[in-house]
Amino acid sequence: MTAILGAGISGLSAGYYLLRKGLTPSSVLILETSNRVGGWIRSERFDSEGYVFESGPRTIRPKGLAASNTLDLIEDVGLADQVYPIFSNHVAARNRMIYAKGKLNMLPSDVVGVLKTKPPFTKPLFMAGFKDLFTGRSSVRLEDETIYSFVNRRFGREIADYAISAMLCGICAGDAKQISVKFLMKRMFEMEQAHGGVIKGFLKDALFRKKQQDTKAQDSSELAKRAKAENWSIYSIYGGLQTLPIRIGLILKEQMVDIRTDVTFEEIVFDGNQILLKVDGKERVVDRLISSIPSYKLAKHVEKQHPSLSKELAAIPFVDVAVINIRYKTPNLQKYEAFGFLVPPIENLPILGVIFDSCCFDMENNTVLTVMMGGSWFEKWFGTNPKEEQLLTVALEQLRKILGIREPPDSYKVNILRKCIPQYVVGHHKRVDAIRQYIREHKIPLALCGSSYDGVGVNDVILSARECVDGLIGNGFK
Ligand SMILES: Cc1cc2nc3c(=O)[nH]c(=O)nc-3n(C[C@H](O)[C@H](O)[C@H](O)COP(=O)(O)OP(=O)(O)OC[C@H]3O[C@@H](n4cnc5c(N)ncnc54)[C@H](O)[C@@H]3O)c2cc1C
How far apart, in Å, are the Cα atoms of 236 and each of 84, 87, 323? Predict the structure, then answer.
């Protein structure tokens, strides 16, 4: 029997991949503490009024290997015709803004834009490339550093302050001055360390890389091929992203996989090749365990038997995010045709950014916006226990100041998502290697997937589930 902890998208995917590897459905058990599947993926549909509120992820990227893997899964579970792509020539794909120096600034989206000086930058962006070309390698070999310090060294302070710091707010609600360069720019960092410069490194590496990509691209599904041929920029699924975990959950249930929600864990005891799970007052023996739950939660379960493993798991930090979904019955209430805007931390404002949902997707005659707040700065702005009304007031105030929206919303939802995004701070990758090494050395029948370890996006966690299962069924535990 294989038990999976957590029925978020990674736990469900792990279940799906186990069946694809030939395990019988009756030998797979999924245990979930909440009353639903999907984890942070949660879409609230208002079908009669034509809009959706997403409190977690809303779009997925179609490019790259992890992305192809997700598209393969979506096709496999029969959702290919439900995919809602945004093509690369769509305004929401081309236009991304940052709010800086008192106004909204459109980021360059083509070569011409990179050649011109565009605020908030005081020089054309291509000059950053020159800085990289003419700056030597760091004086000592680095194993890791913050993404802010790397970008500052290679491309200059403005790119670090306005572009990268804002981007990190959008991707993980995190502080570029803490997040590891390997989180987003692992390859660039390796290029610099190996060749003394990012551009130099990529030029030297170009030929080899192309061959490697070509070989791997051949495995893709029809949907992944379509995404490439039609040049998708990002995509969602009709009815909201929650459609995906619900579909996977249904398929697993139809095949008679035991998915239990609302469970209460009392204890996990590792005993040689077996694991004793004490759940809902009953004991259950399983042969192996896949954990897709956040690392800090797993830390509690293993603390008694493996305190040093627990300490490493607990050391991965998480941030709280407030997501405020707002809907106005008035169409086109905000005038910008764009995906939305991000606010770099240097601006010292209480929001991370705003997504223009109704510009990205058809929301009939509604204007739908999502304000993201908190992350690394949650406590600084809102204390430990803010009230929903307080957060809503801040969100509406910023919409008034930045977008000029004065009318009250017709509906809204304030979501306070506690410890929802892990922060891959400097040393994260080394810590994850140490965690996996400990599990191997102590021969614990435990495998890890999910957002705590190998990437925080939907693509990353689905791939992590697949690799976890491949490792389990192939060569032992990853
Ligand atoms: C606000 C927000 C916006 C995001 N936007 C995007 C985006 O636009 N695009 C993108 O690609 N990614 C985005 N992400 C990231 C993406 O949502 C996550 O990577 C992904 O949903 C994580 O899935 P998971 O299965 O690994 O973890 P989770 O979703 O955390 O699932 C874990 C599950 O385990 C359950 N659980 C917890 N403890 C236990 C226990 N002890 N026993 C059993 N079950 C337990 C939980 O209830 C949960 O259901 C966003 C995340 C957030 C929070």
Answer: 5, 12, 18
Domain residue ranges of the chain, discontinuous segments joined by + = 2-39+242-316+425-473, 107-217
Ligand 1 atom nearest the C-alpha of 456 is 19
Query: Could you read off the pLDDT of 190-230 as tens digits, one per residue?
Result: 989 888 899 888 888 876 665 555 444 455 899 999 999 99
Residues with CB under 6 A from ligand 1: 5-11, 31-34, 39-41, 56-60, 265, 292-294, 297, 321, 323, 417, 420-421, 450-451, 456-459, 461
pLDDT, tens only, 336-378: 999 999 999 999 999 999 999 999 999 999 999 999 999 999 9
| Cα–Cα nearest to 320, from 465, 173, 435 | 173
* pLDDT of the residue at 360: 96
Q: Which atom of ligand 1 is nearest to the CA of 59?
A: 8
Ligand 1: distance of its center to the CA of 8 in Å?
6
Domain 107-217 indexed as CATH 1.10.3110.10: yes
Long-range contacts of residues 264-270, Cβ cutoff 8 Å, at least 24 apart: 264/33, 265/31, 265/33, 265/301, 267/301, 267/304, 268/301, 268/302, 269/305, 270/302, 270/305, 270/306, 270/444, 270/445, 270/446
2-5 and 28-31 as β-strands: parallel, antiparallel, unpaired? parallel
The rounded distance, in Å, linking the Cα atoms of 123 and 383 is 38
- What is the distance between the alpha carbons of residues 40 and 240, in angstroms, rounded to a whole number? 13
Mutate to test the pocket of ligand 1, among 241, 458, 468 (most ligand atoms within 8 A of CB): 458
Q: Give the max Cα distance, the chain.
A: 67
**CATH class name, domain 2-39+242-316+425-473:** alpha beta
